[in-house]
Amino acid sequence: MAEVADLVVRQARSDEVRRVGALTVEAYRAVGYPGAGGGSGYAALLADAEARLRSAELLVAADREGCLVGTVTVALPGTPFAEISRAGELELRMLAVAAPARGRGVGELLVRAVIARARELGLERVVLCSPAGLTPAHRLYERLGFSRLPSRDWHPGPEVQLIAYTLDV
After folding, report:
1. Between 106-120 and 135-143, two packed helices, what is the crossing angle to 10 degrees?
2. What are 17-31's pLDDT values in tens digits?
3. Among 50, 47, 66, which residue's Cα sits nearest to residue 58?
């Protein structure tokens, strides 16, 4: 597996959407995310990277050979993939890292790319939601300077509690 220094974060291409969708579903299943299993509506949403490419910014982390090792969706407020963002905010969604690449800094690389994108767009902050039990992701967000935003915590379903984070950029 390539090291982070050998990776590039870039916009996903249309010929990659199936691979991006599969990577996203597998990453969510691997952490036990409710609804990421086969046949659920959320699994279908995770798999539909083509819709994210059309309605948001879909970023990928790829090695020199083009192997995809991670992905993240970037949404502006009021767009189809925005859930908690408001004016002046960029929303980070569906961060996913392929199992063989976990623990190598791919997630951090992708989050930093979202922060850089918010700055490029002249926005004030980045916001995101994360499953309450996903403490490795929470540690990453907090290490990068994100703080909790409890006023935007929510429950998209009976089995899922999402907790919100924010970072002023």
Report:
1. 50
2. 999 999 999 999 988
3. 50
